[in-house]
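Lay summary. Proteins are chains of building blocks that fold into shapes, and those shapes determine what they do. In this project we predict the shape from the chain. Here is one chain we studied, written as its sequence of building blocks.
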Amino acid sequence: MRIPIRRDPSQTRIASPDDTMTLVEHLAELRTRIIRSLGAVVLGVIVILAAYDWVLEIMRRPYEQLCEQKPELTCELQFISPLEGFSTRLEISTYGGIILALPVILWQIWRFIVPALHAKEKKYAVPFIVSSVVLFLMGATVAYLTLTPALDFLIAWSGEGVKANFQVSKYVSLFGLMIAAFGVTFEFPVLLVFLQLVGVLTPQTLMKNWRYATVIIFVIAAVITPSGDPYSMLAMALPMALFYFISIIIGRVAQKRKLAREAAAG
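And here is the predicted shape, written in a compact code that computers can read:
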């Protein structure tokens, strides 16, 4: 069985001479990309394990900053199960390993989908990887800076006479979910720009529906923010709304360049 890769005959091709791959070849290619990604994650996990105490101290810092503001808080993270310390170390190492391996993972994803793209779309590989990594790190940074007010909000809403005494596993889980949620949502403009470049969306369509998009962005931010506090929700929604309009600008620039090239060629 052979799976055709449809292309516009007028555009340069980058696949095999017959532009087809068998199902077995597709599966073999997918397996190769997965193995390489997993290998990068394993190396990242080893690096984080070696620097575990330093990484844990960085993760504790938002809570320590809150404790400096409110001395009545107990800043020690505790575990209540003999295995909790070990499982927490593995959890932190896994999160960190995936983050360190992110450039490799994104590159493997891109290389897997490249055979289905035109030659002109292949040139977006480096911008795609770099922008994705940078935006993820931006989202992770915003999550990190937002965690202190988020914890303050959550502790305040626990009520009078309730003392905060966090389990290390629960704290690490919240930390990891915050980083993941912000990092992934900050990839939003990369997706929008990519869809415009391949012709699925147009800047005009996005601009026409900006009001609906803004409402949807705020609803999504309210739903997926792990901590559920208003500070984190706004810290997620406002950049996403800004990125929405930036992606429209980038899409219009790309559209004008495309029209100019077509006019020059015609």
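What the prediction tells us: Residues 16-260 form one domain.
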